[in-house]
Amino acid sequence: MSTPTMRAYVLTGPRQGSVQEVPAPVAAPGEVVVDVERVGVCGTDVEFFTGEMAYLHQGHAAYPMRLGHEWAGTVTAIGPGVDPAWVGRHVTGDTMLGDQVCRRCRKGQQHVCEDRQELGIRGGRPGALAEQLAVPAWSLHALPESVGAVLGALVEPGGNALRAAQAADLEPGERVLVTGPGTIGLLVAMFARAAGAEVHLLGRSDRSLAFARGLGFEHTWTEDELPALPFDAVVEASNAVHLPARALDLVEPAGRVVYIGLAGSPSTIDTRTLALKDVTAVGILSASPGLPDTIAAYASGAVDPRPLVAATVGLDQVGSVLAGARPQGAGPGPKVHIDPRLV
Ligand SMILES: [Zn+2]
């Protein structure tokens, strides 16, 4: 009997990838197999495509790679020891897969486990840009009926953004500046707005700021235009090297600065400013602790990020999307989704 195969996007080197027939995953003990319905392409995937991603140079990742960590699908098979109730459930899952035994994992901080795998990112764990995906059952999050595949694949970036918005600790009526109106920045803005904050967005291009205004964010600025307003919090969600320090300059004394953006080279801040302004600074990595609240916010309609999706295409277009091409007919949003069932 021949081994069942499936289609998957395989990245074999910098700017080299293709859709290949690969062995279909088999559910190992404690794991499930998911039929993938929707996958988001994100900046991390692009960094792997270009070869710039730090993990490639630190030994945490190596080609060939199977990308994809923002996903939704349906459980179709379970391995030994998995609750059969998962079969047929619509799910998404945690990108961060800690070893579940170390001190950090036992403290509930498996997203910073030293020995963690990251789905489609780190430790050789194949990602979701494929027809099927195998993941540990413990990493699953069931999606309610009101959270379909599009929203389901936006839970992972949403969880990052929700944690950043929560770290900004906003009271209703407080003013927050979000720097970098990409997917994460716009999601942060949405969660902050849902918390009752007055949201301002700082961006580089008129196109991204116009899109933000279309989402109802009226306070959008370029760096030259930014008014001298007191910002109770600043969430730095860009990839600009200079903006982490600018965020600290812009925030009100006793305010909060949240760092979720990553630049391609080190950004520095002056800790004297941090101390003398009595500012609280927080770094955010991963969605993990924010996944349940994100699903709840999508389910209730408090936050609806679906307008961020510009286009949905098949696996055959992953390479061109990673190379920066906009799919034909794409809308103005920053996110491209892949539906592996499209041919
Ligand atoms: Zn661990």
Automatic annotation (TrEMBL):
<dbReference type="Pfam" id="PF08240">
    <property type="entry name" value="ADH_N"/>
</dbReference>
<keyword id="KW-0479">Metal-binding</keyword>
<dbReference type="InterPro" id="IPR011032">
    <property type="entry name" value="GroES-like_sf"/>
</dbReference>
<dbReference type="InterPro" id="IPR036291">
    <property type="entry name" value="NAD(P)-bd_dom_sf"/>
</dbReference>
<keyword id="KW-0862">Zinc</keyword>
<comment type="similarity">
    <text>Belongs to the zinc-containing alcohol dehydrogenase family.</text>
</comment>
<feature type="domain" description="Alcohol dehydrogenase-like C-terminal">
    <location>
        <begin position="184"/>
        <end position="288"/>
    </location>
</feature>
<protein>
    <submittedName>
        <fullName>Threonine dehydrogenase-like Zn-dependent dehydrogenase</fullName>
    </submittedName>
</protein>
<dbReference type="InterPro" id="IPR013154">
    <property type="entry name" value="ADH-like_N"/>
</dbReference>
<dbReference type="InterPro" id="IPR002328">
    <property type="entry name" value="ADH_Zn_CS"/>
</dbReference>
<keyword id="KW-0560">Oxidoreductase</keyword>
<feature type="domain" description="Alcohol dehydrogenase-like N-terminal">
    <location>
        <begin position="29"/>
        <end position="145"/>
    </location>
</feature>
<dbReference type="GO" id="GO:0008270">
    <property type="term" value="F:zinc ion binding"/>
</dbReference>
<dbReference type="Pfam" id="PF00107">
    <property type="entry name" value="ADH_zinc_N"/>
</dbReference>
<dbReference type="InterPro" id="IPR013149">
    <property type="entry name" value="ADH-like_C"/>
</dbReference>
<dbReference type="GO" id="GO:0016491">
    <property type="term" value="F:oxidoreductase activity"/>
</dbReference>
<dbReference type="InterPro" id="IPR050129">
    <property type="entry name" value="Zn_alcohol_dh"/>
</dbReference>
